[in-house]
Design goal:
mainly alpha
């Protein structure tokens, strides 16, 4: 389903995201209420929705990073499909050059890990501000975890994950053939 256009790139989302976001929200509510048992239920669910929305935006950023790096390397990208934890789609940008393709594959996990580091700094800042910011720190901490997981899981050297593409590109560079 097309949902937006960023930098001229159409952002499409698979319907499976509705289930993923619901699960993320439920887990976030569980984590937030475990940290703060006095958190009112309606606030916990609002914060769970914020975590789910934040995770979705992080995933869009991951896939958008692939598209932007692909464009900078001369690969025509008109749209991307945001899918949960990778998966090859006809919309995945790739390059006929293994070095360029490796940069494209690595850009998504790099974006996820970078977002995780920035959110970790924000979590530390919110924690340092005191008890009044505990809900914000909790939301940020869950988003740190989700971004780190997104980045690390995508680096697993199993195709079609980004790590699998990176391994394929390394073998391609070494052998001279994409079909190693």
């Amino acid at each position: 389903i097309p949902i937006a256009r960023i930098f001229g790139i159409e952002i499409r989302v698979s319907l499976g995201w509705t289930i993923v976001l619901a699960v993320v929200a439920v887990i976030a509510v569980g984590q937030l209420t475990a940290v703060d048992p006095d958190l009112p239920s309606h606030i916990a669910w609002i914060l769970g929705a914020v975590v789910a929305a934040g995770f979705f935006l992080s995933s869009v950023s991951h896939d958008l990073a692939h598209a932007i790096v692909a464009r900078r390397r001369g690969v025509d990208v008109s749209s991307i499909l945001v899918s949960f934890f990778g998966g090859a789609t006809p919309l995945d940008p790739s390059s006929p050059d293994p070095r360029q393709d490796m940069a494209i594959a690595a850009s998504g996990p790099a974006a996820s890990l970078g977002i995780g580091v920035v959110l970790l700094a924000l979590t530390a800042a919110a924690t340092a501000l005191g008890e009044g910011f505990s809900a914000a720190a909790g939301v940020l901490a869950v988003l740190v975890f989700l971004n780190i997981v997104l980045g690390v899981v995508n680096l697993v050297p199993a195709y079609p994950l980004d790590g699998g593409r990176i391994v394929r590109d390394l073998a391609w560079r070494r052998s001279g053939s994409e079909r190693v």
